[in-house]
Amino acid sequence: MSINTNKIGIYLNTKYIIMKLRLLLSFMLLGLFVFPVKAQNATTTSTSNDPAVQLISDDRVTILRGDTPGQTVVLSNAASNRRKYFGCPDSIPSLCAPVKDAPPIEAETRPIKNPDPVIAPVKKDPFFLPNPVFFRINKYVIDASEWSKIELAVNYLNEHPGSTVVVTGYADKKTGTAKINMKLSEQRSNEVAKALETKYGIAKNRISVNWKGDGLQPFQLENDKNRAVLFLINP
């Protein structure tokens, strides 16, 4: 059986070319794998005194000063890629920058205003109105001539709303007994107090009623005038 030598030569040449293509493809694939690894592990030494960042392949971050003895600041391509896509800087500004002194705080002083003086009210002493209400002997009914004297007391009380009045009745010592005169002086003072409240509208809590009978004579020299009611004003 005869062998075609031309066909054998073509077959061998084809097989040789295929082997060379496979070998070339293997080198290309190996180059694609090795080059990124070398590029990623490429190192640069920084001589800056500022702190720098070392980004390690497992994403840990180590902060070193550039002049730390025995240490090398490593900036990998991974750090460059992070800076490119995420805006991460290669270095962090100095963490040991001097702190500026705060401006001094000036205390604000305000003048002390003296408080207004407190003026204590002047307390006036009680006093008698000069016009008593007089009565006839053994009577406690108010005569028409005596109403004007009651009105003088009413005017003062209205003009001084903070004042009060004590209505005190008396009897003369030369007529009647002590018991009768005590009762008569009580009736006289109650009659005048009733007129102040019911006729002139003076509040009841501003009126006090008192009586002395014939035990006290306000008019020592004129007996008839002791048949009277006097107004004691408390300002």
From TrEMBL:
Keywords: Membrane
OmpA-like domain segment(s): 122-235
Pfam families in the record: OmpA
GO cellular component terms attached to this protein's record: membrane
Keyword Kinase belongs to the record: no
Protein name: OmpA-like domain-containing protein
Organism: Dysgonomonas mossii DSM 22836
